[in-house]
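Hey, sorry to bother you again with one of my protein questions. I've been puzzling over a protein and I'd love to understand its fold better. Take your time with it, there's no hurry, and the full record follows here:
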Amino acid sequence: MSSSDIRALEPKALWNCFADLNAVPRPSKREERVVGFVLGFAARHGLDAQLDSAGNVIIRKAASTDRQGREPVIMQAHLDMVHKAGDGVTFDFDKQGIEMWVDGDWVRARGTTLGADNGLGVAAILAVLAAKDLSHPPIEALFTLDEEQGMGGALGLQPGLLTGKTMLNLDSEEDDTFTIGCAGGIDTVGTFEYTEVAHEAATTVMSLQISGLRGGHSGLQIHEGRANAIKLMARLLSACGEMVVALSTMRGGSARNAIPAQCVAQVVVLDDVKFAECFGREATGIREEFRLIEPGMSIASTRVEVDAGEVGIMGKEQQRALVLAMQAVVNGVYRMSPVVPGLVEASSNFSTIALGGGKAEWGSLQRSSVESSKADVARAFRAPFELIGAQVKSGDPYPGWSPSAESPILEKMRKIYRELFGHEVKVGACHAGLECGVISMAYPGLDMISFGPNIHEAHSEKECASVSSAQKFWRLLVETLGGL
């Protein structure tokens, strides 16, 4: 299915901009190509554009004739996306554009993330900037960088560049909900150095593989109990024990804000009989526990042919310490909100690990809507690793966004939504990290709201966006701009 099928979808203005955007690689921290694309877009449409000191793009468009004299409105979305391919999928994100196809009401990508997070938000803003027939006040379009890997663009935003007092953040993923609050986050990373030794000639080398998990967004899906491949691998290694297997290498996870869907470890088997027994028993238990929520789970062990002495392994005591720390470390929901029923207040995601050659390195992301709780869950993640002598640190924090029930833009948009769709919109906070809280540090008092179309399974290769919901989102956006 070609991009023409995407471009034929309604509203064409939105989907054509999305198709153009998805042809441009845009990984976090390497957004130079998409920045060039957006600047070129502004030049082609005769719009004023500038880069700020953090690399964010700001494009300004004058008000339509019928909205002259109105206060400017800020429209905001982030340019980067999570680049993730499914198990066994070969895809060069640095050179290839996203390959999309239409599946009924859903737009999907072939084996990779779709980039609807936050590409549909970016595309909506570009479509508004290009439009000749929309009613709107003066627009300040803010395209930020590096949202997915630490919100670097929003954190670097300087005061004084924007004059609007109202901001529309287009980075939400449920079309029947307005978001007016979100969690803050902090990264916790660690390093554990160990002495590597050669294995004995008569031993068996096995590759242990956990794959086929659902993965997903480590904020929006963290409460669903999805399996974490890194934690499961620690469980398998712990069940076998350092007297049965000697750990050589391990690699799992792909992004700090994605639940890891795969993990592979190479081990030297020290006792073939006991390994077959304990690995089989533990794998069977895991499959049964997760059979409903992880139907695609695969846990396998495959013999690896290597020459004696070619595989380095960890010492028994160091392996025991690291595996137990990995199994003990906090992961998943840490605390539910006592204020907002059903909302996760604090969580932790053990997101990546790379082990081999005498060093293990890992990453994680802790989230909370309460600053003190965010610090607490980060300390809880560090604690087991600090006890074994690993070097662990937390950094790159970003604040949450505290809800305000007295927001003028919320009241305006609630009325517009009710008139358009005949029912009340839901209003709430989310456990994902939005840039609103960070931006408010540079622009205190900014009246903000976040909304968007239905996007499922963001940060995974199953990511998809609803066509009919995008139409609903576009209609709401157009009506909102015409009423400001």
Q: What stands out?
A: The CA atoms of residues 218 and 258 lie 5 Å apart. The chain has two domains: 3-183+400-482, 186-398.
